[in-house]
Amino acid sequence: MSGGLRQADRLLEERGISEDFGAFVTEAAWTRDGLVSACALGDGTLALADRGGFRRVAAHDGAALALCADGGPAGFLSGGDDGRFLAVSAAGEITEIARFGMKWVEHVASHASGHRAAAIGKKLHLFDQAGRTQKQLDHPSAITGLAFDAKGKRVAAAHYNGVSLWFVASKSDNPRRLEWKGSHTALAWSPDNDVVVTAMQENALHGWRLSSGEHMRMSGYPAKTQSLSFSRSGKFLATSGAETVVLWPFSGGGPMGKPPLELAGGDGVLCTRVACHPVHDTVAAGFADGLVVLADIASERILPVAAPGRGAISALAWSADGANLVFGTETGFVARVDFSKR
Known about the structure:
It is built from 2 helices and 32 strands. By secondary structure, the chain is mainly beta. It has a domain at 1-56 and 221-336: Hemopexin, CATH 2.110.10. The strands form 8 sheets. A 4-stranded antiparallel β-sheet has the order 1-32-31-30. Strands 2-3-4-5 form a 4-stranded antiparallel β-sheet, with no helix packed on it. A 4-stranded antiparallel β-sheet has the order 6-7-8-9, with no helix packed on it. A hairpin with a 2-residue loop joins β11 (116-120) and β12 (123-127). It is globular and about 55 Å long. The two termini are 28 Å apart. The mean pLDDT is 95.
């Protein structure tokens, strides 16, 4: 390894643990208490890690497609192409919440209030923390993105020609439709619950400001955006899909009419994943060559976390307190890095 790459790997070597699992990493998540990380793998297993190291848990007969923290402090939800929707404890114990036959469980979501959600085709299935079915919600086409708002009162489902917003506790189950023609994929809520943004098939983003009904169009990407993350204050939306980390300003009337801030570029390599820090105005970013960096939004300073060479970054997630970062690659490399003060 050259001196430059060795320097880029310094944080990983000094503050990280890593292991090669040999299968595409599809998602990454943390328990809500921030003690255990998990990565979902294309071979159906989950790579769990605490400070002591990694352990592999057999979860799905096929690929593990979706992963998120469960509603409680210590556990995860996962979905697979085997049609199983699972709760996985921090110790790796598995409980089947539901089984959907041959249908893929492609998106899962939860909220600390206890709500759980799984998207199967055109249907959104809502469950409580005990695993009881709350309701099933129909959509005009297959669900392509799923997220609860910050308060857990609404759940958003992206699909063809827009997004449907549902009040979880509503008895009428009539969604608010956010309409825009085209294929919508990745989905993000702003921290104040007033903005919903989706990534589009045609290398652009579309957003809706719920309080005013304003539409927002953000374009100019050389590739499709697969990863969206609002900064802790909601002032910026970090995105992948370009040779830099693209941050759209959402304060002062933005983003319409304002150019985005671009960080950590210059090497001609696409940014594939972004994750804004939950406490500070910084963003972690992963690139197609395996590089992982931490970028300070205000100063634009860049801190290398891991050097290129281990496969494209396909998953990236912060613990809730921002003390630890986990990431995974298309080749199956998984690492957990400790940023806490020592």
